[in-house]
Design goal:
By secondary structure, the chain is mainly α. The chain has helices at 2-26, 36-47, 56-63, 71-80, 83-96, 106-114.
Length: 138
């Protein structure tokens, strides 16, 4: 029983890490990924002081699989934010609670699928194929 709970934690951390990485890659304006500071600035701009700010270190810890986000924090961001920041929050919610939330984009769906594949801590998560603007998977 303990191993099963531990395994579920690893798959959740993989999915969260992949989602953060993919959004940094897809929403960059250059050939370089968005930095953690830029991603934090986008999120904080969307929530406009209606919620505690998200630090770049928090996002880095999520991508590095050190911590997972709190459901309540993501839920509030999903309700307050618009556009891709809201999609990011819903994708993260679907990784944390797949029984209650569906992924908002193809990024979230793909991350949930890939989280079940054990490829190690430094796996190649996304490639140029996923840099397109069609995030819904249609």
């Amino acid at each position: 029983m303990i191993k099963r709970i531990y395994d579920q934690g690893i798959t959740t951390r993989r999915a969260v890490s992949d989602i953060i990485f993919a959004y940094r890659q897809v929403h960059s304006s250059t050939y370089h990924n968005l930095s953690f500071r830029q991603l934090a600035a986008h999120i904080n701009q969307e929530i406009r002081g209606k919620h505690n700010a998200i630090s770049y270190q928090t996002l880095k810890n999520w991508e590095d699989r050190l911590h997972i986000p709190r459901v309540y924090t993501l839920y509030r961001i999903a309700l307050i934010a618009n556009g891709w920041v809201s999609d990011l929050a819903y994708d993260l919610l679907s990784a944390l609670r797949p029984d209650k939330y569906q992924p908002a984009t193809f990024i979230g769906k793909r991350a949930l699928e890939r989280s079940l594949i054990d490829t190690g801590p430094l796996k190649n998560r996304y490639d140029q194929h996923y840099r397109g603007s069609n995030l819904s998977g249609d």
